[in-house]
Amino acid sequence: MIMLINRPYTYILLAVWLICTTGVAIYFRRVKSYQRNIILRTHIQTLSDNPHNNTLQPTGKEISKGYYWDIQHVCLQHEGKKIKLKGLNLKYFQAFINDQDFLLLYKQLAAFHHLNEKTELHIVKSRAYQVISQLKVTLKEVDIDIISIRDIGYQLLFNANQTKNNTSSLPKETKLKA
Q: What is the DSSP letter of 63?
């Protein structure tokens, strides 16, 4: 005992050895964990890149052919693309899809902005225009367009590129009627 008590360097050496051993053990544990994470990430990336692996099934209610609205997650899905809506964009979009013709009237827009029916139409139009322009940009990702109907309101057009291509091939008289 006296021999161990009189040798403080032995205790220092023992403490350094324990610290180094603990450090090496922690290092190897982290390296192993890091390697597992890399393998897991590459496996997930491989699954998501595989076009034959169709694990992402559309969820929610089909609002138009190929377009699914998930009310719980407030997201719109189309051909593997998913967008989330929030704020006034969400309110406007829900109003669009609640209408059978996907039409949103200026009277409804006035209610969203807490304006009464006596408010002048140009005030309602200017406030709605700002939100609609933001919504247009967001919905462009999933090929939806919003058209303005003069003095009435706005309407959603699904498959905007196909609709524009189809209307460009129509005769002028048919375009005017539409």
A: E
Give the DSSP letter string of 78-131. ETTEEEE--HHHHHHHHHHHHSTT-EEEHHHHHHHTT--TTS-HHHHHHHHHHH
Choose among 106, 84, 107, 108: nearest CA to 98.
108
Placement of tokens 């377009």 in the chain: 67
Global confidence as pTM: 0.55
Q: Helix (H, G, I), strand (E, B), or coil: what is residue 33?
A: helix
Higher per-residue pLDDT: 93 or 59: 93
8 Å CB contact between 158 and 144: yes
CA dihedral (157, 57, 84, 155) in degrees, to 10, reads: 10
SS3 (DSSP) at 68: strand
